[in-house]
Design a protein that fits this description.
seven-stranded mixed sheet, about 25% strand, six-stranded mixed sheet, Purple Acid Phosphatase, chain A, domain 2, about 30% helix, alpha/beta, about 475 residues, 15 helices, 5'-nucleotidase,  domain 2
Length: about 475
């Protein structure tokens, strides 16, 4: 059994795994190998995926000959149900997920199965899938999320009767996998994903073996199932190994290149024309960061817009701007959201955004595909910064609609969904979520702002000031 997880459109590594799969199949009968992906095979950070609506990834899955594919949040939350239906229409492998059903029908879509039963090497193998329950997000897209533990408690006993080997394709994360192994009897093997954990040697909890292969196709998981001839009991051995030395499959590489060219052509149309350059700085206020903050504020109907400048990766020169340009500048699959936030927490976040350890903080995950967190870009407020003051005391004034900030009052803030997960500026997680805005990503919101001449003019106006400024008007 070869398993992959969290490849996130790292096509280069996927083509190496394709080469290894080809070698394995050349030396084994089809009855001796199962190829399984545990979700997040695609990621709209890559132009090949974005410009093809995932068709590049689907083509590679088909080419590699997967036997089953799990549902990751990057599949489930990056596309509408209709888009997913088109993407996986008549797929030659099942998309396996038991805890997502359509809200309107109460059933699974035609392209998804809760589980499948296959035969390999004389064994009856049950493959059951689960995905991370981002309930609020999935409900906005017309899904109903079922509790993973309740789903397992209901399904595993029945599958146990039908199979010699019960395998959970889990896109829940390591802590959840460990809890499942400790709580639910009857699961022989968990193939994990979501939290990008690498288990070079499997974990064994009770009668369950847990395996995972890290992220981005840097590793692949290999599991061998042995049946003892006398007792009939199964022995499971596994490992995760680096893919660095795997041979690239030329056919897979050619397939990806063809889709790259098609995707870039599809994204080459001009969506806006800039009269002046739009500069980006991640360490201080800049027009492009302010434009995004303003656009998010307007899109969410908030009084204040607040985004981290690290969402943006480059400036825009004067002249035509294409969809591909916007994607390169703002690649993260992140949505806007509306929260209510106490004034004191807003001030705390602004203070933190002046600190080098926040500006330069490097991380990945929660949808963020940038390099560093960056300072906060704002709209709908003006703030005074006294650089002579000590850290966390530099913000000496904040004004909303010309009035001083009330630290005890609640303010409506248009911001980014990743902050509600507790990453970056941690105080923003304490805000109350009013609404997430799906399915449009913030780059779509930015694209609209690039066509708004009034917004393009206004984003060059400073929101951050020094107490020494003599021309401040609120």
């Amino acid at each position: 059994m070869l398993h992959t997880n969290d490849i996130h459109s790292h096509f280069e590594e996927a083509c190496r795994i394709a080469g290894h799969v080809k070698d394995l199949r050349a030396n084994r009968s089809p009855d001796e190998l199962l190829l399984i992906d545990c979700g997040d095979f695609l990621d709209r950070v890559r132009a090949e995926t974005e410009g093809s609506d995932g068709a590049a990834n689907r083509a590679l899955l088909d080419y590699m000959g997967y036997d089953a594919v799990g549902m990751g949040n990057n599949e489930g939350l990056s596309y509408t149900r209709d888009q997913l239906g088109s993407l996986f229409k008549e797929a030659p492998y099942p998309i396996v997920c038991a805890n997502l059903i359509e809200a309107e029908t109460g059933g699974l879509p035609v392209w998804m199965k809760s589980h499948v039963l296959v035969r390999r090497g004389g064994l009856r193998v049950a493959l059951l899938g689960l995905t991370a329950p981002y309930t609020d997000f999935y409900e906005l897209l017309g899904w109903k999320v079922l509790d993973p533990m309740e789903t397992l408690a209901r399904m595993v006993p029945e599958l146990r009767k039908q199979a010699d080997l019960v395998v959970l394709i889990s896109h829940l994360g390591l802590k959840h996998d460990e809890n499942i192994a400790s709580t639910i009897e009857g699961i022989d093997l968990i193939l994990g994903a979501h939290t990008h954990h690498l288990l070079e040697v499997p974990l064994r909890i009770g009668g369950t073996v847990i395996c995972a292969a890290g992220k981005f196709g840097k590793y692949a998981g290999l599991v061998t199932i042995h049946r003892e001839p006398e007792s009939g009991t199964l022995r499971i051995e596994g490992r995760a190994e680096t893919t660095e030395a795997y041979p690239v499959d030329p056919g897979a590489a050619l397939l990806v290149e063809e889709h790259r060219k098609k995707a870039e052509a599809a994204m080459s149309g001009t969506i806006a024309t800039l009269r002046e350059p739009l500069e980006l700085r991640t360490d201080r206020e800049s027009p492009l960061g302010t434009l995004l903050a303003s656009a998010v504020r307007k899109a969410t109907g908030a009084r204040i817009g607040l985004v981290n400048s690290g969402q943006l990766l480059r400036s825009f020169p004067a002249g035509p701007v294409t969809e591909l340009d916007v994607h390169e500048a703002c690649p993260s699959p992140i949505n806007a959201c509306l929260i209510t936030l106490k004034g004191s927490l807003l001030k705390e976040a602004l203070e933190e955004s002046l600190l080098p350890e926040f500006i330069g903080f490097e991380f990945q995950g929660f949808g963020f595909r940038g390099r560093t967190l960056g300072t906060l870009s704002v709209d709908g407020l003006e703030w005074l910064v006294d650089e002579t003051k000590p850290p966390r005391e530099k913000v000496v004034g904040i004004f909303v609609d010309g009035e001083p900030l009330d630290t005890e009052a609640e303010y409506e803030v248009g911001t980014l969904d990743m902050f509600t997960f507790g990453v970056g500026y941690m105080g923003l997680k304490k805000g109350r979520v009013v609404r997430y805005f799906l399915p449009e990503f913030i780059r779509g919101i930015l694209a609209g702002a690039l066509r708004d001449e009034e917004a393009l003019l206004d984003c060059r106006r400073s929101r951050r000031h020094s107490p020494a400024d003599s021309n401040i008007e609120f």
